[in-house]
Amino acid sequence: QMQLVESGGGLVQAGGSLRLSCAARRAILSTFTSSNMAWYRQAPGKQRELVASSTRDGSTNYADFVKGRFTISRDNNKKTTYLQMNSLEPEDTAVYYCNAEYAGRPFWGQGTQVTVSS
To answer: How many whole angstroms separate alpha carbon 9 and alpha carbon 113?
Structure first.
């Protein structure tokens, strides 16, 4: 029902910045605005972990390891969710996934690779 497409990943040096985008291309506007959005990441050999979330009413939450460095935001008119990543560290290297929760059902994007070199 809802297609999530991530973009913006790449290779950066430690201390650099990236902005990830997640477009909900097949969702009607009311569906997107009623959805809770989140970013997850998964490094090789590790479990997928929550990075940041943004509820439909605008509340945000961040994992301790990114708090103060990452910012999640959303543009409802564009049906797009963003993750601004500053002061990147090699430990941030992972595949980053966009997630949407609508009517109690999760939707996942295909993931985008973020690699931070030292």
So the answer is: 5
Contact criterion met (CB below 8 Å) for 7 and 24? no
> Kind and range of the H or E element at 30?
helix 29-33
Q: Is 16 exposed, middle or buried (0-12, 13-18, 19+ CB in 10 A)?
A: middle
Mean pLDDT of the chain: 96
Structure tokens at 62: 């961040």
Residue 68: pLDDT over 90: yes
Mean pLDDT of 5-17: 98
Token pair of 33, please?
A: 């605005």
Of the candidates 97, 87, 77, which has an alpha carbon nearest to the alpha carbon of residue 33?
77
